[in-house]
Hints:
single chain, alpha/beta, DHBP synthase, Rossmann fold, 11-stranded mixed β-sheet, 5-stranded parallel β-sheet, 19% strand, binds threonylcarbamoyladenylate, binds magnesium ion
Amino acid sequence: MKTQVLPVNEESLALGGKILREGGLVGMPTETVYGLGANALDAKAVLSIFAAKERPADNPLIVHVASVDQVPQLVREIPPAARALMDAFWPGPMTLVLPKADCIPHEVSAGLDTVGIRLPASGAARALIAAAGCPVAAPSGNRSGRPSPTTAQHMLEDMDGRIPLILDGGACEVGVESSVIDATGDVPVVLRPGGVTAEMIRDVLGRVQVDEHVMSPLEEGEAARSPGMKYKHYAPKAKTVIYEGEAERVIAAICARYDGAEAAGERVAILGFDEHDFGARTRISLGHAACPQEAASKLFAALRELDERGETLALCEAVDMAGIGLAVMNRMGRAAAFDIVHV
Ligand code: TXA
Ligand code: MG
């Protein structure tokens, strides 16, 4: 199969809508990451997502809608807290886990009684969903175990020959996947941090919980509240270590480890901030230390670059865990199997 990459315009949106309606897969730009979309109500189309991604069948998909009006038919109930979050943060980078309606195939929910629903902010995503005329199930558009794609080019690297069309909407603004919020109860629980932060949710509802596994691995045999927590995502081939602490000490520790490893024959790269001085050592930029949103939008491209360059060791500067910094540290932490050195 030849994979076309087309800029977003009326024609390509109409083509994408047609492919989705007929049970095919389309690469969909969103403000978070690129998604691999299929008609969410077509079990066969949904199964082909799992095949194209090589994704385990027990990891459920997020259902994307073009307007709030589509939500009531997809869920059994919208609890008041969920309604307040929808009003405050949709369209936007937030997925709400709600009790699923019968029309959602179990292939989408992976057998769970709940479904994740998202109304994206991206105009291209909403136009594509509207053109399809159906809700669109879409995981991130990477092959399983690879970083989520934040450009059409990244998605092509992973999906070339596997899907007919990727719509190119440019680089994703947020750069990490949506916040996944369990909104089935009174107190919302952050299962995966993202652009709609725990602080933002607390400001609206006065309460929020963050699942303990956002910053720690699951123990052997421990149940995951979100199936995605079980999988080692975003793992570059390089051994990845995060350094956390006061900036001067972090820089010194990274430089020392870098020099030792390089002398021992490793290929080393630093994921670091622009204003920090690492001398002539290889550095992939995470933007400015004071702007965690820059790190969010650069992180997945940086992880891909590590693999392309054939690095064997990656030394990363930690980001402050406030706001979207928690999402950055969650993704970086998982890439590093939570190997975090406190200096
Ligand atoms: O930003 C995003 O969310 C992107 C774009 C394309 O919208 N999509 C995305 O999907 O990241 P995916 O499939 O790569 O990640 C969905 C995560 C998984 O970790 C999954 O386990 C979790 O959401 N999830 C989905 N449905 C769930 C449910 N009913 N209960 C708990 N977790 C759920
Ligand atoms: Mg994913």
